[in-house]
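input
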Amino acid sequence: MLNASVCLVEANTDEPEVSVGEHLSKPITEGFDTKGVWIVGTGVVVTLLTQQLDGAAFDLTSDNQIMNKDMSHVGDILGTGIPGITIVALQFLVGDKNEGWAHLETLTWTTLSTFTLKYINQRERPNSKNRHSMPSGHTSTMFATATSLTYSYGADIGVPAYLLATLTAISRMSDNAHWLSDTAAGAFIGIFWGRAVAKHHISIAPEVDFAQSSFSLNCRFKF
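output
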């Protein structure tokens, strides 16, 4: 019988050193693999489909119909990025530096791509306040944090984080700040970058030693 062993964490000392620029570019060079392209493609399709439902969703959710102002204010705060940066700081404080760097990189790439798309799209918000509606920055930020935490700590942390991200998305519609499709696009942006960054920070490989009748799962954190 094979005996399962605890996941081992190893320093990634056998890989060649890379420059900061090379490291920071890896989410782009490695993120657009088959799964990454699938996430982007699905995000585009879902965004286009939900655009057909923007009007109906607005009639259902606008003016705090399904979420009171206090709860929508919570969602507004969650999506500012301050909670995410606070979590990054805590990760560094408790010694989870690799996870902290991955989270920080995720937020950086998410913010850059979100504001670039806002500038390109110039979509007017439901409340006509400005033309920065597509995609939702609050939603992309929270889904980026949720995805990063899921890859770092698993479903026990990831599931509650995704629920808070969903609450943030609903709060943005409830406050008349975004259309449904804005939040859909933001969610997929955050998910994409969370995975893309985690992909080069974490690798997991099973090893079976038949001579010793043992099984181990080696986790290597790259940075």
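quick obs: The beta strands are 3-4, 8-11, 202-209, 214-221.
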